[in-house]
Fold this protein.
Amino acid sequence: MLSIVTYPDKFLKTTAKSIINVDGTTQELIGQMEIIMLQAKGVGLAAIQVGIDQSLLVYDIEQEQKLSNLRVLINPKILGKEGETLSKNEGCLSVPDFRADVKRSAKIFVEALDRHGNPLQFEADGIKAVVLQHEIDHLNGILFIDHISSLKRGLYKRKVKKQLKKTR
Ligand code: NI
């Protein structure tokens, strides 16, 4: 069973590889990620976060903890961005016990494959745009704390170091 990789694990800096064949292995990975995300009550989860370097993410902006609400994107790419928005109190399953405001684009234009490998193109705004920018960042080895000031990031890093010392 897969589990969530957390900061400061270096794997989170990995760039995901495109999925060439959407096959049974992909479906198995999707199934496992859906379970992990529901258990963790997350809004989004990228494969990188469960230690798999494949370009795949699941997300759920309804937040009703229903399997049928989960959406899957394979090989997602942001083709265009528009405007700016402040994502308040953004958090991440891989960055426990920390939240921060992050500047994001207000609207994005996304190209991807759906869970069956069919091509998709769509526009997203609001919370959906924020969640997808966050998750697509993961697939490029970027965390939301990479978007905040080095001062705030430093505070979090020190806190994590202290906690790691305690558990050793
Ligand atoms: Ni995240």
Remarks:
- The beta strands are 44-46, 56-59, 71-82, 85-92, 95-104, 107-113, 119-125.
- The pocket of nickel (II) ion is lined by residues 92-94, 134, 138 (CB under 6 Å).
